[in-house]
Amino acid sequence: MKIKYIINAVLAFCLLASSSCSDYLDKMPDDQKTMDIVWKSQKETEAYLYNVYSQLPDDINIYSGFPWVGAADELDVVWERYQTASINVGNWAPTNVYYNPWPSFYQAIRASFVFENNVDKNFQLSESLKKQYKAEVKFLRGYYYWRLLRQYGPFVLIDKETTFDDDWNKYPRTPYDRCVEYICQMMDEASADLPFTWKSSPKWLGKADQVACKAVKSQVLLMAASPQWNGNPDYASFKNPDGTPLTSTTYSEDKWRLAASAAKAVIDAAASSPAGQEIRLYKNNENGDATFNPYKSVRDVHLAKWNCEVLWGTAREDRDITELERHMTPRPGGWNGLGPTQRVVDAFFMNNGRTIEDPASSYQETGFAQSAHPNWKRDHVDEIRSGNSWGNRVGEWNMYANREARFYASIVYNGRPLPQVSNDDRNVYSSNKNKNGWGRVELYSSGVSGSGSTDHSTTGYLMLKFTHPDSNPYRNQFGAWRQHTYIRLAEIYLNYIEALNEYDPGNPDIQKYWDLIRERAGLPSIFDTYPEIKGNKAKQLEYIIRERQVELCFEGDRYFTTRRRLLSDKVDTQRPEERRLYGDGGGMYGMNVLAGDDFSSTNFYTRTRFETRVFMKKMYLWPMPQSELDRNKSMVQNPGW
Which of 32, 233, 526, 595 pairs as cysteine with 603 (C-beta 3.0–4.6 A)? Predict the structure, then answer.
């Protein structure tokens, strides 16, 4: 057997097989001759390293149910065969856990130790490469632990290579603060031996670097400072079998200071980034266009590969993003089933920067628009695809008129001309009576993409974010490849201002970095729009959470923000159910997809409950798989499960 096949078989077994708790903590099979070959060959050693990378999660994989989006209050995944459908109605338990990366992450963590402990044996590698590679696996180890922490809470901390005959029952879960400390330690140690960024080294893009280490640390410390983990009395009885508390119920303001400091470290690094490695918010006029266009800026930050805003991402096969695009494209050609909720539609600001609840916003709930959006420059299909004209057209429903750029870059609503698809194929998306070359999306009941089609959005909307204007699923054509982004700079700005607000709500940096996000979106400062909130911790927090909801929609942030802020089980009693701002249980709303014979059918545009969701306090954490608890008697289940 050729060497490469021996190596690949071992690595595939070590890293890719999902099995029991004892398996994922077990020492990898030791064919000593084979493993000796791994550490003598640069090619095979680097193949082993890439296998440690191979377990990086794919957050946009629709086949896993798009878990952090489909299980949040911002989207409905229509297909019941996908996991989020069961989660949203409470049909899950430790015995039927969905999206369970626990085994594969521990396999990768184990592999990181094997690599770190053996790479020095390879004399084909330079000392500098060995140092870099060891730093990379430390980063990956910390990152896999971070993903376990945010999904399950306190994990089992294994901080060394384990032996085959180890007694796994002696490994209980580790207290939350110690888990946080270890992840941050890994990020700090890795950062010391990594380059600032790989932005000027294309062949290394997607690898760990200093900026990625700092950005992950910001995410970790923000969650650790948040109410779920900072003095939460609901976890008072969350203890190991020996009585060791797994989380502190004492509030600490210092945790917010640490979170702010970690975010500011990323911001300072970005500000000092050298030429050729610039890190800043993406704007179209700083990336080839002559004039600033907020729509193209907020659209293309997700389309321009390895752009200046990406802090860390990873290369993925085209299939991941193209399958996502296919699922959110209307019929025919698309699969027509990723439906944003009315809640996220309502969250977007008006073009004047005000919320739709504000009487001064000019928002209208009903009727058809008598004028076009001020940024609708030219009524031509080519201008739609290019992004030069954006906003509502005359005759579209007023609910969608005069909204901000991020709304139009994220949401497809009934009657909107498809922003993608070639001119020649636009009529295939239209009924005979509407075949006029515009390709207006027919989400009403009898429309091509309505409730009578094979699959249909249950909300009367389709997701648009991440869709390339050159994509045409009808012809199985998709836009240029781009990386999967895990963290971008806008998130760090939001992390920073949220943390600052908790202990220093009058800090001028809150306005400074908040303004940058809104300016890129074409909006005025929140403090110009609502000057009365300035310095008011509670009011600023309300708008910060809303800004996160809009800026980071469909990126997986909303799921964790509502949980770490303890908003998921809350009942928003100040508003009727169909207009709630938060709460993951109860009625979820969209348009009336069972109504309508044409774009002019006003009965379609009625807030209608599409689902009654279940959320209980235990769902703030994912259940530990029962199979793992059965094999490790020292591990306790998460509260309530």
Answer: 595
d(CA 485, CA 409): 17
**H helix and E strand count, the chain:** 22, 8
CB-neighbour burial class of residue 231 (10 A; exposed 0-12, middle 13-18, buried 19+): middle
Q: Kindly state the tokens that stand for 434.
A: 């509407």
Q: What is the mean pLDDT of residues 509-537?
A: 98
The sign of the CA dihedral 318, 208, 205, 555 is: positive
Q: Looking at the DSSP assignment, which residues form a beta bridge with residue 485?
A: 313
Q: What is the pLDDT of residues 476-514, one digit of tens each?
A: 999 888 889 999 999 999 999 999 999 999 999 999 999
148: tokens are 């376990």
CA 105/CA 201 separation, integer angstroms: 28
Q: Which tops the pLDDT comparison, 320 or 239? A: 239
H/E run at residue 60? none
Of 322, 624, 633, the closest CA to residue 478 belongs to 322
Compare 449 and 82 and report the one with higher pLDDT. 449
Q: Which residue type occupies 469?
A: P
Distance CA 219, CA 263 (A): 8
Question: What CA–CA distance (Å, rounded) separates 464 from 374?
Answer: 21
Q: What is the pLDDT of residues 81-110, one digit of tens each?
A: 888 999 999 999 999 988 999 999 999 999
Torsion over CA of 220, 222, 228 and 231, rounded to 10 degrees? Answer: 110
Per-residue pLDDT band for 9 (boundaries 50, 70, 90) equals: very low
Counting residues of the chain whose pLDDT is more than 90, the rounded percentage is 83
Task: Name the helix (H) or strand (E) containing 627.
Answer: helix 626-631
pLDDT at position 16 over 70:
no
- Distance between alpha carbon 312 and the CA centroid of its chain, in Å? 13
What is the C-alpha separation between 449 and 458, in angstroms, rounded? 11
Query: How many CB atoms are located within 10 Å of the residue 292 CB?
Result: 14
pTM above 0.90, yes or no: yes
> Cα dihedral sign for 530, 533, 539, 540?
positive
Q: Which stretches does DSSP call E strand in 222-368? A: 310-314, 338-340
Q: Which of 441, 390, 442, 410 is nearest to 346 (CA)?
A: 410
DSSP class of residue 197? -
Residue 526 has pLDDT above 50, yes or no: yes
CB 77 within 8 A of CB 337: yes
How far is C-alpha 32 from the chain's CA centre? 41
Nearest to 170 by CA among 640, 637, 634: 634
Which of 423, 410, 215 lies closest to 295, judged by CA?
Answer: 410
Give φ, ψ of 142 to 5 degrees: -65, -40
471 and 325 Cβ atoms separated by less than 8 Å? yes
Flag whether pLDDT at 195 surpasses 70.
yes
Direct distance between the N- and C-terminal alpha carbons of the chain, in angstroms, rounded to an integer: 48
- The full set of domain ranges for the chain reads 100-121+151-174+606-640
Give the integer Cα–Cα distance in Å for 396 and 460.
14
Cα separation of 447 and 431, whole Å?
7
The two structure tokens encoding residue 554: 């469909």
Task: Please tell me the total number of residues recorded for the chain in this structure.
Answer: 641
